[in-house]
Here is the input.
Amino acid sequence: MSSLREGPTTVVRREDYAPPAYWIDTVELTFDLDPAKTRVLNRMALRRNPAVPAQPLRLDGEELNLARVLVNGAGCSFKMDGGQLVLDNLPEGDAPFTLEIFTTCAPEKNSQLMGLYVSQGTFFTQCEAEGFRRITYFLDRPDVMASYTVTLRADKQRYPVLLSNGNLVESGELADGRHFAKWVDPHRKPCYLFALVAGQLVAREQRIVSRGGQEHLLQVYVRPGDMDKTEHAMHSLMASVAWDEARFGLPLDLERFMIVATSDFNMGAMENKGLNIFNTKYVLANSATATDTDFANIESVVGHEYFHNWTGNRVTCRDWFQLSLKEGLTVFRDQEFSMDLCAEASARAVKRIEDVRVLRTAQFPEDAGPMAHPVRPDSYVEINNFYTVTVYEKGAEVVRMMQTLVGREGFARGMKLYFERHDGQAVTCDHFAQAIADANPDSALARLLEPFKRWYSQAGTPRVRAEGHYDAAARRYTLSLTQRCAPTPPLHAVAHAALRAHA
Here is the structure.
């Protein structure tokens, strides 16, 4: 998705993970949107992590102009250390304190399409994996989860639509032809799930009622002129909401759910809480120009991003080594969704064959080459290089094996236990596997959990050899199976391959 950062190579290792020295409980963001100079006021409530020795607060930032820093409403001393804002002499003890940071940035000059940027006159954001630091100084890591309130202010004629995560609680007019919208996300989330969209957009809307009797508003936002290409995306979203509630008992947890399409986007789509941003390829389609494959891809990707609402958003990754915790699990869920929508058993089988074909044509070669890496890598140079078919598709197959070992109903019990234990938390692949096993204590998975988890740490495609022998006198047939897998390539081989790929 993006190239390696310039400068000395830094290897990040899973074994070096340490919890943050501070927690952020609430975030209040106010944006005055302007393509050349957007002003961002960030008010946070923080507290020290008592499990970590006292140390300075180090906040990540990139390409920001810092104007003001206040602690509990008063000025404070700080310093810059590379791209980090470092604050010492903060209030002692476990009591919360407020930190206010005022910065500016230039979205129209942001050609990385990470953080806050402008595309064809519309503001967008992309924060996974480390883009939020290009919006404001922050603890830009997935295990820091906070409640967000966001106020957007902009010129009403140029930016009539102002969107962010959660529920719209207030909007109105301002002086000089400007207007505002205030959004509150009732669920704690990491900063990589933050989203903002502002521009001239139109929406297809549909109101639905959940099984629990709650009414929700679904919206698909596109540029004017593309409305006739949004019907299938809306139907796919409706089917996704209904399927997740029926299959796993996971309801839509917001008053509204929004999809926005843009042609300038690094990824296929992004699961920002309640405000999914898509490349137009996975939203726009009509029968005059789109193929059956186009329609199937839209259904799958819309489902995938919606299913992240629980597997990735409500329960997220402790660190980026756990990427398959959300991506492998959610690929498995979107595969099951597409198969469950098939009217005929043969169509369901064809869908499974298609998924296996992706493994054989894309993932098997990756596992056999210099870029081979485990589903959960132990180290990386650049996290964006690990958004791979191994983490996604092979990770989905590891989840599918769990369902095979415990059965469809047993897997649903495991999912239920997973959310009961970890809703609102940032966890690891081990937590997920343990929940599935604990919900099915008599299963083969529970008995062999530790050896099974080698699938997360061993790269390569295992090769199985079968040898049979028939003893005619005893009328006994013996089948012997042996398995081997090449050693996982060392880190330097993967790093050099990544450097060559991005040269």
